[in-house]
Amino acid sequence: MSTIALFGAGGKMGYRLAANLRNSPSTVRHVEVGEAGRARLKESFGIDTVAPAEALDGADVVVLAVPDTHIGKVAAGIEKGLKPGTMVIVLDAAAPAAGHLPDRPDLTYFITHPCHPPLFNDETDMAAKKDYFGGIKAKQHIVSALMQGPEEDFAKGEAIARTIWAPVMRSHRVTVEQLAMLEPALAETMCASLLEVMREGVDEVVRRGVDRQAAMDFLLGHINVLASVIFEEREGAFSDACNKAIEFGKPALMRDDWKRIFEPEEIAASIRRIT
């Protein structure tokens, strides 16, 4: 059984983890610097927070549920309290890939991130259907990477990951470099940008006279059916008219070299901007 020190326990992400770790057999010590976060933990779960030194005393797992921009500072601040063999779990690849973790070969670095509940799912409970982020009611997949440490530590980290992101379906093992391709490149640089363009498209047709609710209903419905075909969720084919629109639309919307966002140097530049 592990002793886990959860840093940032009252924050947006840490609060979710604190909720799920109540179902863990591990001993969990909660660290939160914000008064509002500490009050939230106490009011919601009856959890009392502790000072960093107390949390680290004897802990064999440290979870850093803090923003990417704070990872380096927090990690440097607690480094002296990390005994050899401690597993440090980070929830995003950006800071580790940017070299913001201490140069400590005697530590295990494990990175895990949720895929979030899939667009196509079998949820029937309304609370689960409305759990868009995951980690509360909706089932989701996860990805994890063992950045450094003994191979047997992957299973230990994955078990904790399954707890903090529960309920979990598939658990994928990737490398740190692959995780960085997934986020920020695939999920944020590509997907979030394209979705923002779609939202701007709604604004544009509304500006041109279409009722906003009609535009939203039309677009979101079409996203559902078009995605089901494009990602082979169901058998189907687009009409000739749709194929012609795609043939014209891609070069009108996308640069020819847009896939450069997946090149290592572009991912590195993106991570520098993030961190």
TrEMBL record:
What SUPFAM superfamilies does this protein's entry cite?
NAD(P)-binding Rossmann-fold domains
Instruction: Specify the protein name.
Output: NAD(P)-binding domain-containing protein
Q: What is the lineage of its organism?
A: Bacteria, Pseudomonadati, Pseudomonadota, Alphaproteobacteria, Hyphomicrobiales
Q: Which domain of life is it from?
A: Bacteria
User: Which Pfam families does this UniProt record tie to the protein?
Assistant: F420_oxidored, PGDH_C
Q: Where is the Pyrroline-5-carboxylate reductase catalytic N-terminal domain?
A: 4-89
Transmembrane segment boundaries = none
Q: What positions does the domain Phosphogluconate dehydrogenase (decarboxylating) C-terminal occupy? A: 121-275
Which species is listed as the source? Pseudaminobacter soli
